[in-house]
Write a structure and sequence with these properties.
mainly beta; 5% helix; 16% strand
Length: 110
């Protein structure tokens, strides 16, 4: 059985005027190192060392989902979500602490 992790927001969502253009310049998604286990069939663990996903083609093509560096599908790369946590009070204080969050799902077999 799969176990789901539910994240709870600490803050209310930002007002519509700040979405996408707040003090941090908005959020986004980027893909980090490759986690594909190339030795899984032999019972071992070996990764290729690819440090960041680089799309092999233009957006909308099948190449956009394949990494040009290692040849793996984008789903093998760790997904980082850039969230903007800026509110009017943060902008007035001069703070802009956008931090990447890893969206790792925890699944266990029972």
């Amino acid at each position: 059985m799969k176990r789901m992790v539910i994240l709870r927001r600490c803050h209310a969502p930002p007002p519509m005027g700040l979405v996408g253009g707040g003090c941090c310049g908005g959020g986004g998604v980027r893909y980090a190192e490759c986690r594909r286990n190339h030795a899984a069939s032999m019972g071992g663990h070996a990764v290729d060392g690819c440090r960041e996903f680089l799309a092999d083609g233009e957006e909308g093509t099948s190449g956009a989902l394949r990494c040009a560096a290692c040849g793996c599908h984008r789903s093998f790369h760790r997904r980082l979500v850039q969230r903007c946590c800026c509110f009017p009070s943060d902008a007035a204080a001069g703070r802009s602490d956008c931090s990447p969050e890893s969206s790792a799902s925890s699944t266990t077999a029972s």
